[in-house]
Write a structure and sequence with these properties.
single chain, 127 residues, mainly alpha, membrane, DUF4345 domain-containing protein
Protein backbone atom coordinates (compact mmCIF):
# COMPACT_ATOMS: atom_id res chain seq x y z
CA UNK A 1 0.00 0.00 0.00
CA UNK A 2 2.94 2.36 0.54
CA UNK A 3 3.66 2.01 -3.19
CA UNK A 4 0.12 3.17 -3.93
CA UNK A 5 0.58 6.16 -1.62
CA UNK A 6 3.91 6.97 -3.27
CA UNK A 7 2.26 6.74 -6.69
CA UNK A 8 -0.54 9.01 -5.51
CA UNK A 9 1.95 11.64 -4.32
CA UNK A 10 3.81 11.50 -7.63
CA UNK A 11 0.55 11.84 -9.57
CA UNK A 12 -0.52 14.73 -7.35
CA UNK A 13 2.83 16.45 -7.92
CA UNK A 14 2.73 15.90 -11.67
CA UNK A 15 -0.78 17.39 -11.86
CA UNK A 16 0.47 20.47 -9.95
CA UNK A 17 3.44 20.72 -12.33
CA UNK A 18 1.16 20.49 -15.39
CA UNK A 19 -1.19 23.15 -14.04
CA UNK A 20 1.71 25.47 -13.24
CA UNK A 21 3.30 25.01 -16.66
CA UNK A 22 -0.03 25.72 -18.39
CA UNK A 23 -0.49 28.88 -16.32
CA UNK A 24 3.10 29.95 -16.98
CA UNK A 25 2.91 29.42 -20.73
CA UNK A 26 -0.66 30.52 -21.47
CA UNK A 27 -1.44 32.90 -18.62
CA UNK A 28 -4.92 33.97 -17.66
CA UNK A 29 -6.57 32.00 -20.46
CA UNK A 30 -5.99 28.83 -18.41
CA UNK A 31 -7.91 30.02 -15.33
CA UNK A 32 -11.40 28.52 -15.34
CA UNK A 33 -13.91 31.33 -14.92
CA UNK A 34 -11.18 33.99 -14.94
CA UNK A 35 -11.53 37.20 -16.82
CA UNK A 36 -9.17 39.61 -18.44
CA UNK A 37 -6.34 40.88 -16.27
CA UNK A 38 -3.91 43.73 -16.64
CA UNK A 39 -0.18 43.25 -17.10
CA UNK A 40 0.49 43.57 -13.36
CA UNK A 41 -1.88 40.72 -12.50
CA UNK A 42 -0.57 38.62 -15.39
CA UNK A 43 2.96 39.10 -14.08
CA UNK A 44 1.90 38.25 -10.53
CA UNK A 45 0.00 35.12 -11.57
CA UNK A 46 2.93 33.83 -13.61
CA UNK A 47 5.35 34.62 -10.77
CA UNK A 48 3.32 32.61 -8.27
CA UNK A 49 3.01 29.73 -10.69
CA UNK A 50 6.78 29.30 -10.55
CA UNK A 51 6.22 28.60 -6.85
CA UNK A 52 3.34 26.24 -7.70
CA UNK A 53 5.68 24.42 -10.09
CA UNK A 54 8.23 24.06 -7.27
CA UNK A 55 5.40 22.80 -5.04
CA UNK A 56 4.59 20.03 -7.49
CA UNK A 57 8.27 19.14 -7.87
CA UNK A 58 8.57 18.96 -4.07
CA UNK A 59 5.78 16.36 -3.96
CA UNK A 60 7.51 14.25 -6.59
CA UNK A 61 10.81 14.58 -4.72
CA UNK A 62 9.27 13.74 -1.33
CA UNK A 63 7.45 10.71 -2.74
CA UNK A 64 10.80 9.05 -3.50
CA UNK A 65 11.52 8.62 0.22
CA UNK A 66 8.34 8.85 2.28
CA UNK A 67 9.88 7.57 5.53
CA UNK A 68 12.71 10.11 5.28
CA UNK A 69 10.69 12.97 3.81
CA UNK A 70 7.34 12.42 5.49
CA UNK A 71 7.54 15.75 7.29
CA UNK A 72 7.98 17.46 3.92
CA UNK A 73 4.78 15.78 2.73
CA UNK A 74 3.06 17.01 5.91
CA UNK A 75 4.29 20.57 5.36
CA UNK A 76 3.21 20.52 1.72
CA UNK A 77 -0.20 19.30 2.85
CA UNK A 78 -0.42 22.06 5.41
CA UNK A 79 0.29 24.60 2.66
CA UNK A 80 -2.40 23.08 0.44
CA UNK A 81 -4.87 23.17 3.34
CA UNK A 82 -3.98 26.81 4.01
CA UNK A 83 -4.68 27.53 0.35
CA UNK A 84 -8.18 26.11 0.78
CA UNK A 85 -8.75 28.26 3.86
CA UNK A 86 -7.55 31.35 1.99
CA UNK A 87 -9.91 30.49 -0.86
CA UNK A 88 -12.74 30.62 1.70
CA UNK A 89 -11.46 34.02 2.84
CA UNK A 90 -11.46 35.26 -0.76
CA UNK A 91 -15.03 34.01 -1.16
CA UNK A 92 -16.10 35.90 1.99
CA UNK A 93 -14.37 39.10 0.87
CA UNK A 94 -14.97 39.08 -2.90
CA UNK A 95 -17.92 36.77 -3.48
CA UNK A 96 -18.31 33.29 -4.88
CA UNK A 97 -15.64 32.14 -7.32
CA UNK A 98 -16.21 30.09 -10.47
CA UNK A 99 -17.92 26.71 -9.95
CA UNK A 100 -14.55 24.98 -10.45
CA UNK A 101 -12.96 26.75 -7.51
CA UNK A 102 -16.03 26.09 -5.35
CA UNK A 103 -15.47 22.38 -6.09
CA UNK A 104 -11.74 22.73 -5.35
CA UNK A 105 -12.28 24.04 -1.80
CA UNK A 106 -13.28 20.67 -0.31
CA UNK A 107 -10.48 19.01 -2.29
CA UNK A 108 -7.97 21.48 -0.84
CA UNK A 109 -9.28 20.88 2.67
CA UNK A 110 -9.70 17.07 2.52
CA UNK A 111 -6.72 15.84 0.45
CA UNK A 112 -4.11 17.15 2.94
CA UNK A 113 -5.91 15.38 5.79
CA UNK A 114 -5.91 12.14 3.80
CA UNK A 115 -2.24 12.59 2.89
CA UNK A 116 -1.48 13.06 6.58
CA UNK A 117 -3.48 10.06 7.77
CA UNK A 118 -2.77 7.54 5.03
CA UNK A 119 0.91 6.79 5.77
CA UNK A 120 0.22 6.80 9.51
CA UNK A 121 -2.54 4.24 9.08
CA UNK A 122 -0.18 2.12 6.99
CA UNK A 123 2.51 2.35 9.67
CA UNK A 124 0.03 1.31 12.39
CA UNK A 125 -1.12 -1.61 10.27
CA UNK A 126 2.39 -2.91 9.73
CA UNK A 127 3.44 -2.79 13.37
Amino acid sequence: MMRVFRGWLVLFGVVMIAIAVAHLLFGQATYIGGGAVNSTMDSDLRFFNVLFLAYGLAFVWAARDIPGRGRVVDLLGLLFFAGGVVRLLAWAVSGAPSWFYVVMIPVELIVPVLNYGWPRALARGSS
